[in-house]
Structures are given as C-alpha cells and as structure tokens.
Amino acid sequence: MDDDLEQQPQGWLSSWLPTWRPTSMSQLKNVEARILQCLQNKFLARYVSLPNQNKIWTVTVSPEQKDRTPLVMVHGFGGGVGLWILNMDSLSARRTLHTFDLLGFGRSSRPAFPRDPEGAEDEFVTSIETWRETMGIPSMILLGHSLGGFLATSYSIKYPDRAWPGAAIPAGLQTQVCRLL
Fold this sequence. Notes:
It is built from 6 helices and 6 strands; from the N terminus they run ααβββαβαβαβα. The protein is an alpha/beta fold. It has one domain: 3-Layer(aba) Sandwich (Rossmann fold), CATH 3.40.50.1820. α4 packs across α5.
C-alpha cells in the first residue's frame, strides 16, 4: 500500500458515513467543463477579479434580448455553478443569467474568513456586492439555494435597492419558482 495515501477507517459504520475525498482544481475544471457541455445556450465562463485580489468564478448565459433585470443564482453549502445546470437554459430564455461560486467554494478564491457567524455572513454579502459592482449590474433578481438563499436574503436586506429576492429554495427547483421568473 502506498504510504502517501491516508488509510480510511474500517468497519460497518465507516462504509456509509461520508468521507473526505481528495480532489484538485484540475479535476474540478474537467468535471465542470463536462457539466457545462449540457448547456444549449451560449455562455461565458470566467474569473471576475475583485479589488481585494479575490476572484469569483462566474458563468453567464445571455439571451439575444437583454433588457430585463438579470437573474443571479447563488448556490448552497458545498455547491457551485454546476448546481443549476438543468435549469440554466430555461431560466436564461428571456433574461441574462449569472451564477458564480461563492468565495471558499468551487473555483473561487479561498480567503480567510472571520470566525464569528456575523463576520462570515458580512464577508459573503460584501463579496456579492463587490462582484455586482465589478460586473456593472445595476439591479438583479437573486435566487438562492440553501446557504445561497440565506445569503441572497441577507444581501437583499442590506442592499434593498439593488436586489429583489426572487426565491430561497430549500431543495431542487420547483415549477412554481420558474413561473415567478
């Protein structure tokens, strides 16, 4: 057995408990590229550099008609831009759609976060506002899943003139949510 590999616990309990799996940025890039191939609409995937040197990985899908308020989708804990893949084509049919990896997730920067909950929340909300400013988006509809729903709501409370909270989704994307947009 290779000494460089960490040995996993043995037994019935460890067989069904979630375990950490080593990964890499190159694996993430390859898997994400395969996921994004499912999109029928044209998209742009790139890093958006923030003034504080952090980078937010962003995917934008734009229809030909771009005069409607853009939809910004914020993933939940452990998620990323790929979370929304099955909904991105239909949700971008009549408006520009942006989705991004929150700081600390996916392909975005991993800065040191404050240890207190309020400080961490403020760090996320501030990064979303800085991202919005950098992208040149005057106002947006926010759609969040799980942690993303919490952050979208927090953002909308702090910046009510810049965002309309579209929905906070606990799991999946329901037909009723699509009708709202």
